[in-house]
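Case study 2.
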Amino acid sequence: MNMVSLTHNICTFKEKLFKGHLPPIKLETHWRGVLARKKAERRKWAVFIVRRFIKGFIHRDRPLCPDNEEFIVFMRKNYILNLRYHVPKNVLDKSWLTPPGILENASELLRKMCTRNLVRKYCRGITAERKALMQQKVVTSAVFRGKKEGYTETLNQPFADSRIDEGAINPKVLQLLSNEKIQYGIPVIKYDRKGFKARPRQLLLTQKAAYVVELAKVKQRIEYSALKGISTSNLSDGILVIHVSPEANRQKGDAILQCEHVFEAVTKLAMLVKKENIVHVIQGSLQFYISPGREGTIVFDTGPEEQIYKDKNGQLTVVSVRMKS
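Prediction:
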């Protein structure tokens, strides 16, 4: 029943009522009939819509056709509306709302666009200083990944520009290095090549050389041109050995150092030296240069507690606690 006929019937009922030809109870009966027919029409329409969507759901995996067109349009809209609440917030977040089968290609395109936008936003927000530190992390990965214990635990620890404030460096040392800008500094423990006595020192790196400093004195200057290699063990200790070339003039011998941030210190030094394959991760033991014709040995081992001592054979033994894999 359309609106024109419904309006006509209502007007007819009103006319009969006013003329006294139709009692009020009769009008109520007719009006209830009109409402019932209207409700039946709505139910019929609802059944038609539900059946059409059920048919579309049954044929949802087929190519677009009249049987599934409206359901797929609804499904697309619903997926996009839900996706906005599940969009990744950063580059490392790989989560993504699972799409319906027919929207897999569209979902993959949206995911790539989202990832590209996050990467672009992240890259544009990185400062030059942070970019340089991240490049150092890449070098660290190439040198230590899968080779030295403890590397995985340092992945979420950003490198520092320096571990020593300029105010903690003696003014006399700063005056001696006035022609060279200090690129990096870190507190270290230096072990004597003879006797292996532990001595607190500072390791300062410039563009030209590495300096081992004691208070106001430069105890050793290692020019990068004379640097032969850098060695560290595959265990979790913080020992690093800076090897110098025996032919180099005015060089005392290899420097045996221990520091808390060994991955950082070795990476900084290797990048300043600018030599390929200069870092060696050693298993078991290594030899170090003392003086012409004399060498010493460092033995690396594991135990219940960390120790560094001179053993009965006159070797430096470094014991570290094996980390759980």
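The two ends are 78 Å apart (CA to CA).
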